[in-house]
Design a protein that fits this description.
mainly alpha, 12 helices, ABC transporter involved in vitamin B12 uptake, BtuC
């Protein structure tokens, strides 16, 4: 226990960085799920990894390259959608980013190890700069969703609302896309490509399946994400495991356990109702 506390003292910045990103990604993932843009998370994350490796290869900060690549893709999303459906756009961007990553790691010296770290996650090595970036992203994301969350829902469910008011619906959508791209790059740089995708996909998915309404899902998704993150961080630190795969494994286990818990609760509720009905009849 003492050894674990010493490790936590050493890695508290990393732990806090990941916790902030877990809350942010789960909140953004709800909108992505509503818009059926699951591939967007993988596409932006993979492009961010490609941009980070490309920047590293020419001597620039990886975070700068990752942000540039993802933000360019998010900015080009709206005009590209007019010619290529979203269902084809995001898988195409993902495959492109993956190809660039593989070619860079295979042909450039000194890029192979950072490339592997981007996939496995390098949360333990994040410093104050990444912590401040995660905090800023969470603040900006929280304010954006609070101010523009209803507009995002209307833009997807009732786009005629914006036409009636003479407002462009693409503006709020583009703002959200830029926010997702920036948040995912920060997450990829610390949690890894698959760890970031697992956080932005699985907790919102579970929250939408088991929540009775949107408000409940908006609260449940960040809570589930944070709980899974804390458990994964504890296990990875205690057993000296790479964080990204451990996080993905914990989230998969959560996805398998929650339906069982829900089924048990449903059976208990049905049994209580049957006993109550029987007692009333007697």
């Amino acid at each position: 226990m003492t050894e674990w506390l010493l490790q936590l003292e050493l890695f508290w910045r990393a732990a806090l960085t990941g916790a902030l990103l877990a809350i942010l990604l789960a909140s953004l993932g709800l909108i992505l799920r509503l818009r059926h843009e699951y591939w967007a998370a993988l596409a932006y994350g993979q492009l961010g990894a490609a941009g980070a490796l490309g920047a590293l290869a020419i001597g620039y900060p990886p975070l700068l390259g990752g942000l540039a690549a993802s933000l360019i893709a998010a900015s080009a999303k709206h005009p590209l959608e007019k010619r290529l459906l979203t269902t084809g756009l995001f898988p195409l961007l993902f495959v492109f980013g993956w190809s660039v990553c593989q070619l860079l790691t295979a042909n450039l010296p000194g890029v192979e190890r950072p490339g592997a770290a981007l996939f496995e996650g390098q949360l333990y090595f994040t410093g104050l700069e990444m912590l401040l970036g995660a905090a800023l992203a969470l603040i900006v994301g929280g304010v954006f969703l609070w101010r523009k969350g209803s507009d995002l829902l209307l833009a997807h469910l009732y786009p005629a609302h914006f036409q009636a008011q003479g407002r462009p619906a693409w503006a709020v959508r583009a703002g959200f896309d830029l926010l997702v791209a920036a948040g995912l790059v920060l997450a990829v740089m610390s949690l890894g490509v698959m760890g970031a995708f697992a956080l932005i996909f699985i907790p919102p998915w579970l929250a939408c399946v088991f929540s009775p309404n949107w408000r409940t899902a908006a609260i449940a998704a960040p809570i589930l994400s944070l709980l899974a993150y804390l458990l994964a961080f504890t296990l990875a630190l205690a057993y000296d495991q790479p964080f990204g795969p451990m996080l993905a494994l914990v989230l998969c286990a959560m996805a398998l356990c929650l339906p069982v818990v829900a089924l048990v609760q449903q059976n208990n509720a049905s049994g209580s109702a049957a006993e109550s009905k029987k007692s009333d009849q007697s």
